[in-house]
Write a structure and sequence with these properties.
Blueprint lengths: L3 E3 L2 H9 L7 E6 L5 H12 L3 E6 L9 H6 L4 H10 L4 E3 L3 H4 L25 H16 L3 E5 L3 H13 L5 E5 L19 H7 L2 H6 L9 H14 L5 E8 L15 E9 L2 E8 L2
Parallel strand pairs: 1-4, 2-3, 2-5, 3-4, 5-6
Antiparallel strand pairs: 7-8, 8-9
Helix pairs in contact: 6-7
The protein binds adenosine monophosphate.
Length: about 280
């Protein structure tokens, strides 16, 4: 089967309308610069025999910093080659104007968990994320959609939106794909200079130790990790917090390590990286 490339809504619709009635769509939304993390989502969708649609769209609504948006890496030609080689059924690459037409003013807003962690300093970031995800659901009408645990808060909020708004799309999550050093794959890694990349590859070293630490209080574990990272060259930590995987609540004590994750965002020479690790 050839990979279909759709660049307009009518073209996408035509191709989806041509699908056999019993064929289920598996949606993999991305912002491009495809790497093995994205491909793990594709692989899962293909394994489930879904008609796999990958979208490539750098969503301006989720950026609150124009420089960050402008510098977001892009490699369309290479992306298409990779996606074709991985037997993706359809790639949808819309232009901004098709998604946000002139006068656009409707956004999805979650009000309890959007201003913590990645949303604390990035006002409206998750409103932008939820809006594009819901739009892509309405446009592609998937049976299932695939998201990575690397963006854990995003995954949490998408699951919440689907439940709260009765959206009938099955959300399937995929564990974080890492390189040999344990660095979570990310399109932004491409923006790191050699020195920052070397440092980024060390993040994992500090977090691997968590399993062997036995702190009773969350804030003691957090401050130990903060100190360790700062001592080792990470001097711009946006947040480092332990939270419940199921609820994103911030517990005072560490009772059941299995239910907790540590969430981190660091800035390395202007590039913002995020990750999260299970405590056990
Ligand atoms: P992005 O293009 O960064 O917006 O990511 C698109 C999708 O791929 C999101 O669901 C991400 O969580 C997921 N993703 C990105 N990096 C990874 C990774 N290293 N492992 C697993 N999933 C990932």
């Amino acid at each position: 089967m050839q990979t279909i490339i759709a660049r307009s809504l009518p073209n996408l619709k035509k191709n989806l309308n041509n699908l056999k009635k019993n064929k289920k769509v598996g949606l993999v939304p991305t912002m491009g610069c495809i790497h093995d993390g994205h491909l793990a989502l594709v692989e899962k969708s293909k394994k489930l025999k879904y008609f796999t649609v990958v979208t490539i769209f750098v969503n301006p609504a989720q950026f609150n910093n124009t420089n960050d948006l402008k510098s977001y890496p892009s490699q369309e030609k290479k992306d298409l080659e990779i996606l074709k080689n991985n037997n993706v059924d359809l790639v949808f690459i819309p232009k901004v104007q098709q998604i946000y037409s002139a006068g656009y003013s409707t956004y999805v807003k979650e009000i309890n968990y959007s201003d913590i962690l990645c949303g604390r300093l990035r006002k409206n970031h998750f409103s932008g994320v939820l809006t594009i995800v819901l739009k892509l659901f309405l446009i592609t009408k998937p049976y299932a959609a695939f998201f990575g645990e690397k963006d854990f808060q995003q995954l949490f909020l998408i699951k919440k939106m689907v439940k709260d708004l009765n959206v009938s799309v099955k959300i399937i999550s995929v564990p974080t794909v890492r390189d040999n050093n344990g660095l979570a794959l990310s399109s932004r890694n491409k923006l790191l200079n050699p020195k920052s990349l070397k440092l980024a590859k060390k993040i994992n070293v500090h977090f691997r130790k968590i399993r062997h630490l036995h702190y009773k209080l969350t804030r003691d574990l957090e401050s130990y990790l903060q100190k360790e990272l700062k001592k080792n060259g990470f001097n711009d930590i946006e947040y480092l917090e332990v939270r419940e995987s199921a609820t994103l609540e911030h517990p005072v004590t560490i009772k059941d390590k299995k239910s907790l994750r540590v969430f981190i965002a660091v800035n390395l020479s202007g590039v913002r990286l995020i990750d999260n690790y299970k405590l056990k």
